[in-house]
Design a protein that fits this description.
The structure holds 2 protein chains of 2 kinds.
Chain A: H1 12-78, H2 80-88, H3 91-103, E1 110-115, E2 120-123, H4 137-144, E3 151-157, E4 160-170, E5 174-184, H5 186-196, E6 199-205, E7 211-216, H6 220-229, E8 240-245, E9 248-260, E10 263-272, H7 273-324, H8 339-367, H9 370-377, E11 384-397, H10 400-404, H11 409-429, E12 433-438, E13 441-446, H12 455-479, E14 487-502, E15 507-512, H13 514-529, E16 533-536, H14 537-542, E17 546-555, E18 563-571, H15 577-594, H16 598-608, H17 614-629, E19 640-641
Parallel strand pairs in A: 14-16, 17-19
Antiparallel strand pairs in A: 1-2, 1-5, 3-4, 4-5, 6-7, 6-10, 8-9, 9-10, 11-13, 11-14, 12-13, 14-15, 16-18, 17-18
Chain B: E1 21-30, E2 40-45, E3 57-59, E4 61-63, E5 66-68, E6 71-75, E7 78-81, E8 90-95, E9 100-106, E10 114-116, E11 120-126, E12 129-139, E13 144-146, E14 152-158, E15 161-168, E16 180-185, E17 188-197
Parallel strand pairs in B: 1-17, 3-7, 6-12
Antiparallel strand pairs in B: 1-14, 2-13, 2-15, 4-5, 7-10, 8-9, 8-11, 11-12, 15-16
Classes of the chains: A alpha+beta, B mainly beta.
Amino acid sequence: MPAPLNLQFKSYRSRIITYLVILFLLILGTVFFSVNRSTYNNTRDVIDDSLDVGREVFIRLINEREANFKVTFRALALDFAFRTAYNTGDFDTMLSVSENLLARTQNADMLMVVDYDYLMVADTLQLHAPETEFPWTYLLEDAEDDDNYETSSFILIGDIVYHIVAVPILTPLTDGWIIVGQRIDTDYVTSLVEIISSDVSIIELNERGNGRPVATTLSSIQADELAIEFNLFSTNTQATGMLDLADEEFVFLNTVLVERPELNLIALIQQSLPDALAPYRELEQRLILLFALGLCLSFGMAMFLGRSISRPVLSLVKRVNKIEQGDYSVSQSSKRNDEIGKLENSVDTMATGLAEKEKVRDLLGKVVSKDIADELMSGQVKLGGETRIVTILFSDIRDFTTLCEGRAPEKILSLLNNYLTEVSAAIDQHHGVVDKYIGDAVMALFGAPIKSDSDTYNALCAALQINEKVVSLNKINAEQNLPLLNTGIGLHTGQVVAGNLGSANRLNYTVIGDPVNLASRLESLTKTYGVNIIVSEETKNQGAGFIYRELDLVRVKGKAQPVRLYELIGFKENATAEIMDDVGRFEEMLSCYRKQEWHSALDIIETIQKGSAKVLYELFRERIKIYQKTPPEPDWDGVFTFQSK
Amino acid sequence: MNHKVIILVILLIQLSSSLLAGDLDVSFRNADGEPVIDAIIEIVSPVIPVPDNWDYRGLMDQVDKEFIGNVVTIVRGSYVLFPNNDDIQHHVYSFSDNKSFDLPLYSGTDTEPVLFDVAGVTVVGCNIHDWMLGYIYVGDSHLMAKSNASGLAKINNLSPGEYTFKIWHERARRNEQFSTYQVSIPKSGAASVEIELNLGRDRRIRRAPSGSGSSYH
């Protein structure tokens, strides 16, 4: 099964032009085919009718010729002098009489006199001697069977066909016949062309059915081909057919002149089909010209129509592309009232709506996180939440209240905004969401509302970047004589309830649960341990690729289960031998500490206490000294319990 | 030639007390058994002299553009009159071998009788009326008879003995025309002969149509 026509177009205009032109060509083709067929059929009908008329006229001419010959020669046969001469038996006299009669008879080309014994008496062609047998005795036998002893037929004398009539010689009994004939040759059939408006051919059929033109108005080449083609042609009376003779088609109509064992003659009335179609060919030329003109006009109209549609559509495409790129400016109205105009208006309306929505989104994005803003803009805002694992980041500026003292509020606000902008940028950059600002503190979420496989990793990266940004910011602040900022960051990963919290009119997307509180606690402990970033064991376990230092095992207030604290030092790829040695020694100290090997632990502290870890080591030194004085319970599990938040 | 001639001779012997003479009855039938009219028989043997008081005159009348008595029998040496009883003229002629003549257009009975002095059959026509056709049978013997409507040709009062006669009919085939037959004439009564003729077609042409005339069929 062939594939359906599936045209691919690059433009709507091409499609319209192609379809319209194809449609026009189909209509033209149908019209042309119909006219052509109708004209051809009509021409064939006209030819057939003309051939019928020609055949009737031809037969009538033959019959009239016969009738004229009979009338004339009946009268001659009655002539007493003729009859007297006939009875003399003088052949020379009869030949003379015959030649005299022939000369005075219009259209007669030969005359013979035959006696009742079928013996020749006279022959104006002088082909047959007196008293020899008349060659066509069957004709006289026909005449003897006729009431008037007459007959008519066609005979072949040599290669020439004669149309003959035999009338009796009465003395007073039928005693012989006068046979008069007219030559049916090319001159004769040519004389018929003007009368019957058709070509005429006389064909002799031999015993094998092959034809031989004995007289024709066709050209010699066509006549030769007719002889070859004729055996294909039916010899049925009034049969019609087509023959291609010398590259010219002819329509034929058959007429049997004589059909008997001795001779078969057929007359073909024929007309040239190209000649008959000649008037239509002129019409055809005009039609082709007209159709070509129509095709050009339809092409032009299709172009105009296509352009009238494609232009505004292309303009709309440009307009939509601009909208896609954020250009919501209203276009110049085309003032069209049709479907295109309505579409342009709709696009303008849509652009206005999108512009307004974008404004809302922009504004919302400044109030809440972009992801939360997107979720709100998506229209899927609903109360309630869902349980999910998130990493919560808390950051806070240590001693911010102290920093504010004695400084202008505007400067403090500017300082804080610069800080919060950097912090928010770091969170955004690592796909976190700022849940809320609490004064100088920031609560951020990783894994809500959008979850990914690397939420914890992103949160750890964001924490490190916040530290870096604060270092950079502090350089600027130092130059501007502004206070330096010290930030503490706490990170914990755990299961929370995330969702829109609030009333139907006023919502806040946030998370709630113990992990939030723990993250906040961890942030608070950064100051205690003197480190920048503290992460819980859950966060550390999910955040590979970083250097951690275990800080402590503590039980925060309000929590029964101890929490293992880790300091986030940096990326593993940035690890130096010094850092790793420091971490190792600390862990060694921590091990001694938990085994209550206080001296060993203090020795280690003494050897490694330096740099930024000074607060940390001091913390443990103080704690060990306390334990030395007041040893913990024998079943001490190494957990330090904080009694305050 | 395929023809059958059935000759049935029935001798009917009738006693006559005073004269010995017999008759010859020849019955002509065509192939369909129908009687044939105007068939002629002529005794050719023995040759019997024509009586001295024989009337040597014959008549072929013309009425309504037809020869009346279109088959006439005469003895050689007879004269035949061709009276014209139509109100138009006729041109009577013959190209026959035994007598060729023509009587140019004439009316009434003013024409001279025509002598037929050679035995044979003379075909007579009218030059202006092709269909008019008459036959004059010129016999050597006066012992001739023409069949009537019943197809019977009869010659009476023949002396008993062996006779030869010949026959003629205008439509008889060539092989039957003038064929001869032997017959024994009884002393009294008749010798009957039945002859079947295979007739050819009538060679007379169709009469031209006219307002009052009839035509041959």
